[in-house]
Amino acid sequence: MKCTHLMTILLLSSVFTIWSCQEGSLSQVVTVDLPEHQPKPVIVLQLASGDTLGEVLLSNSKGITEPSDAYEYPSDATINLFRDDQLLTDFTFNTMATRARYSANFTNEGFSDDAPVKYVLEVNHPDFGDYTITQEMPAKANITNPIFEQEGAITPDGFREDEFTFTITDTDPGQRNYYGIRLFAINEFEDPNTGVVYRFENELGLDSNDPTLSYGFNYSLIFTDEAFSGRSFTARVYSYFGSNEELDYVMNIYSLTEDAYLYDRSLNLYSDNKDNPFAEPITVHSNIPDGLGVFSLANVVEIVF
Amino acid sequence: MRKTYLSSLLMWAPLLLLSQSYTISGYLEDASSGEKLIAANIYDLHSGAGAVTNTYGFFSLTLPADSVQLSFSYIGYQVVERSFVLKENTTLNISLSPAVELTTVTVTSERSERIEQQTQMSRVEVPVDQIKRIPALLGEVDVLKAMQLLPGVQSGGEGQNGLYVRGGSPDQNLVLLDGVPVYNVSHLLGIFSVFNADAIKNVTLTKGGFPARYGGRLSSVLEINMKEGNMQEFHGEGAIGLISSKLTLQGPITPGKTSFLVSARRTYADLVFRPIIKRSTPDDQELDVKLYFYDLNAKLQHKFNDKHRLFLSAYTGADVFGNKFSDEFGRTDGGIDWGNLISAARWNWQISPKMFANTTLTYSRYDIDIDFAGSDVDENGNTANSFAALYTSGIEDIGGKIDFDYIPNPNHYIRFGAGVTNHTYSPGALSLKAEEAQEVSLDTLIGSQKDYGDEFFIYLEDDFTLGALKINAGVHASAFAVDDELYTSVQPRIGLRYLLNNDLSLKAGFSTMTQYINLLTSEALTLPTDLWVPSTGQVKPQRSWQAAAGIAKTLNDQYEFSIEGYYKQMQDVISFKEGASFLFGLENDWQDKVTQGEGESYGLEVFLQKKRGRTTGWIGYTLSWNWRQFDEINSGQRFPFRYDRRHDFSIVVNHDFTDRIGLSAAWVYGTGNAVTLNTSSFVTSVPNYWDSYEVETPGDKNAFRMSNFHRLDMSIEFRKQKSKWERKWVIGVYNAYYHRNPYYLLSDTEYDFDPNTGERINERKVFKEVSILPIIPSVSYQFKF
After folding, report:
1. Nearest-5° angle of CA A235, CA A259, CA B389?
2. Residue A235 touches chain B, beta carbons under 8 Å
3. Is B695 exposed, middle or buried (0-12, 13-18, 19+ CB in 10 A)?
4. Which of B67, B212, B757, B772 has most Cβ atoms within 10 angstroms of its Cβ?
5. Are the beta carbons of B729 and A1 separated by less than 8 Å?
6. Could you tell me if residue B216 is left (phi over 0), alpha (psi between -120 and 50 degrees) or otherwise beta?
């Protein structure tokens, strides 16, 4: 075959290939016949020790193509939280309805960190139905030896970042425990005119090279004690945000109920994969019978670096 | 009564003595290369009796002492005839010469074992020469993609080489390379197969009606045999393509006694990009990227004498992805490697003219490593802190088996044998090590420990003739010992063929199968990280039974035609529990994340094939249904399997216009894949988010369909015979008329904007199909000497 023939064929093929790869040419809108959707109730309450405000979301699911106003937020539900079978509080509909939540205030000390304590959430509504969900407050994590080192970590991309390490000890090797981590930068300044001290907390994202820790949704990182059952483990995490020596850093380490852990992990995986066509469809974890959402608890330990 | 029998026997004794029989045995081989010819035909024109060569080219034909006129034939080869008086056991090693291409040499097709004469149904053999002609993506000849064009075999996603045979999943295919199971058959996330066609001698796919000698998988057996190496002359062939190059060399070490074959293939994306990356990296940093795959096949054959032969074969191949970075502050190194190592030693022993034995020792290993290591460097350039993580997973087999062929007379072909395989499963383990200021702060191993299993089997089958009826009956018995559990299984098999006339036969088959190994994988995409795991005390073996019936006919001595209907039931097939795959992690035992259920598939397959002449190819059509049911999935309701495909149609045509120009085309059409779509949504609240977060939830499993797909691939060859070698330019185009075949379906939000203000005034949810492979041209240069 003559070289010119070959070049001509290749040139023509390349032109066709480039044309067929033009923007938008590889996707097309199609019609899909969807079945009529049967709404399910949605109940969400996530409480952590120290919370001064608890909020319950009560809503419903809708068909994927239905408009957003298909979501209902009923205001006439009865929602109670029981602690060891005693009514702890009821939740009332928040008339500042932009968030459409039922709320309850806890004492100034916040939601109790006593553990183990059984909590039961009861939701009753004439149209949505009656629901009872139980959770047990987990014990606080046993944390020691917190260390902060500026630019102490090296990321997989080769960058230096601030490193935070702490040691966590598992004291009940037969029990699977679940944890979440969040980091805050604390900025306080005093108004020179009034002398009032203002405190700002900015949450910083966390990452780790240690595959024992994985990403969460509400919590920056989550993990279980599978890797160090009955032993101590030094967790090494880092923040991508540049440190400032004038700031304090507070790390909250949460002991999570299993439902809290599964909900947070599945929600994060849903978030990560919702646009990934190769991922299996992800059903976000729920412990609401015949419904969606979660009732979960967390017990927090605060570490100041 | 007893006296009556005795007197009858005495009366017939002289006659029995007169009809003394002798056995003609030997090998059929290619005259130029010495390659053994598989399934070649031996036919006595006087008596009408015949035989077929086995996988090693051996035949045995027992005939009465008399004059015989034997015809030796094989598709694509000139017929050889031998006439002599048979008065003793005779050894005949026959060499057949290839028919001269593109001439009108008549090959005695009517004397070959034609499709209607074979007992075995649901079995397809595609000549490697045809496979190499089929237009291929980026010009990379792909055995598995060629198999996807056969009826009863579904492809996975566009461009993928997964095989879904009669409703089965990829792990239900037993892929054998020289008799050794291959666990990972893909490179580059399933785009290319690991089999280098230049090193392959023949490919046979069995989809049902399994003879007793096969076992261990539910849905198919894909046998791929490597070439043995030319015993007579040194030869080579190779190709230079867009993404890879390959070279195969073979020849005699001792002519007529010992031969070798070596074949290698490697991609070169990394070699192309490495200088570019190096140029774009700052001087105070180092970045090294690896991105390639390779295959290496080798085989050694030694003929001790006419009765003993030894074959040593090996394959290794891997995908390598990685990057290494370092600067003044530290270094990181990570990557992912996966690959197979396969080796086999086979000893052929012709025990007697009527008995042939093959003993095989095998070793195979598939593993994947994902590693990351990082370390800091202090001001003195010493390593300060370091961290290393290594995830490993894989499977390792050591096995042996012995197979006997016993051919007492032309009416019986008895096979029996036994085997044992020791499996070592490593279903995922993560080792972590960290050092801080020279002290170990973490050194642990997480994840499953190794599991061990021993698999045993024995089998017995007989292919026997009763007039127009030919039966292959047998039994395959297997056992699997794992943990403290011992599973056993007795699997009866039967295949029937009834000749209606010289060209037409009815066929039927029934087989039961048991599988002790599972692949934990996503339905959407097969990845190298998928885990091979055994049946355990908690996870039962997969089982199936399949019945098939059909007709087979040869038309005009040119075309093989068959219609087959089949019904298959599968028990204890495995799947991730709903939503469990994403929770699959180190903190969970994989057994807790899977569920077992049932599968059902049925359908009809039509196949018309032409194997020789200027025009070759086939037409295949499949009408099928494929279901799954798991108590813990889809609320226990039955649902279509992802690759349930109502219609699947393919046409493959190769045509030689002259001895210098040939055209090939393949057109496929299929019903769209079943998919699960998010059908509803809800709003959830997250403590630290002021806004609500909307979450979509999936509807019924695989309740929706992507659009039907169709595609035309074409290639043209320009060949030229030089004085001592032959060269070939192959120019191809994939998806020639550019049909946007859906690879996946997703939901998206589209917006309407006010034409005057540009403000968003409306939004709506739509579904979009996305295709990934447009028109893709290819060119490769091939040579042979």
Report:
1. 30
2. no
3. buried
4. B212
5. yes
6. left
Whether the Cβ atoms of residue B515 and residue B570 lie closer than 8 Å to each other: no
Nearest to B676 among A35, A281, A294 (CB): A281
Which distant-in-sequence residues (6+ apart) come within 8 Å of B223 by Cβ? Answer: B176, B202, B203, B204, B205, B206
Chain B interface disruption, residue of A3, A7, A23, A27, most B CBs within 10 A: A27
Measured CA to CA, the distance from residue B780 to residue B730 in angstroms comes to 5
Calculate what percentage of chain A has a pLDDT beyond 70: 86
Chain A interface test: which of B323, B431, B530, B681 (most A C-beta within 10 Å): B681
Quick one: pLDDT at residue B443?
A: 65
Dihedral angle of Cα B464, B465, B470, B472, to the nearest 10 degrees: 0
Interface of A with B in 205-234 (CB under 8 A): 209-212, 214, 217-218, 224, 226-228, 233-234
Q: What does the pLDDT read at residue B689? A: 63
Are residues B679 and A217, on separate chains, in Cβ contact within 8 Å? no
Half-sphere exposure of B446 (CA within 13 A, CB side): 23
Counting as low any pLDDT under 70, the low residues of chain B are 1-19, 100-113, 436-449, 523-529, 578-589, 687-691
Distances (CA, A) of A35 to A31, A32, B179, B578: 13, 10, 50, 21
pLDDT at B10: 44
Please calculate the CA angle B636-B640-B646 and round it to the nearest 5 degrees.
160
Q: What are phi and psi of B286, to 5 degrees?
A: -125, 130
- What's the CA gap between A137 and A299, in Å, rounded? 7
**CA dihedral defined by A137, A138, A140, A142, rounded to 10 degrees?**
170
Residue with tokens 């018995």: B477
- Which phi and psi angles does A182 have, rounded to 5°? -135, 150
Candidate from A93-102, A183-192, A224-233, B555-564 with smallest mean pLDDT:
A93-102
pLDDT of residue B160: 79
* The two three-digit tokens of residue B744, written as one number: 């996946």
Q: What is the pTM of this model?
A: 0.80
SS3 B679: strand
- The answer for B 483-522 residues in CB contact with A (under 8 A) is 522
CA–CA distance, B477 with B475 (Å, rounded to integer): 6
CB contact under 8 A, B579 and A218: no
User: What are the structure tokens assigned to B81, written together?
Assistant: 């005839």
Bridge partner list, B213: none
For A192, left (φ over 0), alpha (ψ -120 to 50), or beta?
Answer: alpha
- pLDDT, residue B17, reads 43
> According to the model, what pLDDT value does residue B19 have?
59
User: Would you call B660 an interface residue with chain A, using a CB distance cutoff of 8 Å?
Assistant: no
A38 by DSSP, 3-state: which?
coil
Strand order in the sheet with A62-63: A62-63, B678-684, B693-698
Minimal C-alpha gap between A192 and chain B (Å): 31
Nearest to B146 by CA among B98, B210, B200: B200
Fill in the DSSP letter of residue B110.
Answer: G
Chains A & B: contacts with CB separation below 8 Å: 235
Kindly determine whether residue A156 and residue B774, on different chains, have CB atoms separated by under 8 Å: no
- In A168-187, the residues whose Cβ lies within 8 Å of chain B are 176
Digit-coded pLDDT (tens) for B212-228: 999 999 999 999 999 99
Q: Do B774 and A262 touch (CB under 8 A)?
A: no
Whole-number pLDDT of residue B626: 95
At A160 the pLDDT is 79
Total residues found in chain B within this entry: 785
* DSSP letter (8 states) at residue B12: H
Interacting residues of A276 by C-beta distance below 8 A, sequence separation 6+: none
Cβ pair A10:B743 closer than 8 A: no
